[in-house]
Design goal:
The structure is a single chain. The radius of gyration is 13 Å and the shape is globular. It is built from 2 helices and 8 strands. The model has no long low-confidence stretch (mean pLDDT 88). The protein has a 5-stranded mixed β-sheet, with helices on one face. The chain has a 3-stranded antiparallel β-sheet with strand order 1-2-3, covered by helices on one side. It is of the alpha/beta class. The N and C termini lie far apart (40 Å). β2 and β3 form a beta hairpin.
């Protein structure tokens, strides 16, 4: 029985994250990134003007660091270490959720 989730071919999937480098749908990114079902973009660390989403995952680097209280109350989010955020994004996107992940890389 094949249990591979059906994911739209245009939906970006995180294939790997190592040494501050993301491999997303066969493309290499050496910057902080923002990824959703719509695509991948460089993330400047700002929470202003984020694209529409149901779930926001914030990858905070090597360890879990919560954004300031004001930001957390204005924008519902889950903050976690970047490697965990990458795995969580893939699980949720394969479940058909409208996920936005803002991922800070570790240098």
């Amino acid at each position: 029985m094949d249990i591979t989730p059906l994911i739209n071919a245009n939906t970006p999937i995180i294939q790997s994250y190592k040494n501050g480098v993301f491999k997303i749908s066969n493309e290499i990114y050496s910057t902080d990134v923002m990824i959703s079902h719509d695509g991948v973009a460089k993330w400047d660390g700002s929470y202003d003007d984020l694209p529409a989403h149901d779930v926001l995952i914030v990858g905070t680097g090597k360890t879990q660091i919560f954004p300031d209280a004001k930001t957390r109350t204005q924008i519902p989010m889950e903050a976690m270490a970047t490697d965990a955020a990458c795995r969580t994004y893939n699980v949720l996107i394969s479940d058909g959720r409208r996920v936005l992940a803002c991922l800070k890389r570790v240098l």
